[in-house]
Amino acid sequence: MHAVDQPISFHCECGNAHCDEAIRLLASDSKAIFHEPHRFVVVSDHVIPEVERVVERREGYAVVEKTGEAAEEIDQEEQDADAAEPTG
Q1: Per-residue model confidence (pLDDT) at position 64
Q2: pTM, full prediction
Q3: How far apart are the first and last CA of the chain?
Q4: Helix H or strand E segment including 56
Q5: What pLDDT is stored for residue 2 in this prediction?
Q6: Residue/partner pairs of 75-83 with CB below 8 Å, 24 or more apart
Q7: CB-side exposure of 6: number of CA atoms within 13 Å?
Q8: pLDDT level of residue 31 (50, 70, 90 thresholds)
Q9: For 68, left (φ over 0), alpha (ψ -120 to 50), or beta?
Q10: Can you give the residue ranges of every domain in the chain?
Q11: What is the pLDDT of residue 87?
């Protein structure tokens, strides 16, 4: 049986807490995007240039990478999560 690259629905990951727009990505695209911890998908016109840069534009959405303090917050959250995991 062959794997089929089906579209998956994701919520826009913009900075607007009230945004409820959906973005459809192919499964293979989502794996590549979310492999990078600073990368997110947002509806094309939801980009916030003050805290993110556009890495790629596709039809209906943009892949953005958090920069500056926003990126530092992500790094800190990852460090905190790593520290909270039990060892051994």
Answers
A1: 96
A2: 0.77
A3: 38
A4: strand 52-58
A5: 52
A6: 75/37, 78/37
A7: 5
A8: confident
A9: left
A10: 7-84
A11: 66
Task: Tell me how crowded residue 40 is: count the other CB atoms within 10 A of its CB.
Answer: 22
Measured CA to CA in angstroms, residue 87 lies from 54, 82, 83 at distances of 37, 10, 9
Could you tell me the CA-to-CA distances from 55 to 20, 35, 74 in Å, in that order?
Answer: 22, 14, 17
User: Can you tell me the distance from the alpha carbon of 73 to that of 69, in angstroms, rounded to the nearest whole number?
Assistant: 6
> 10 CB contacts (<8 Å, ≥6 apart)?
22, 23, 24, 25, 30, 41
pLDDT by residue (tens digit) across 58-75?
999 999 998 888 878 888
- Residue in the block written with tokens 């500056």: 68
Counting every residue written for the chain, the total comes to 88
Beta-bridge partner residues of 66: 52
Q: Which two tokens stand for residue 14?
A: 């913009």
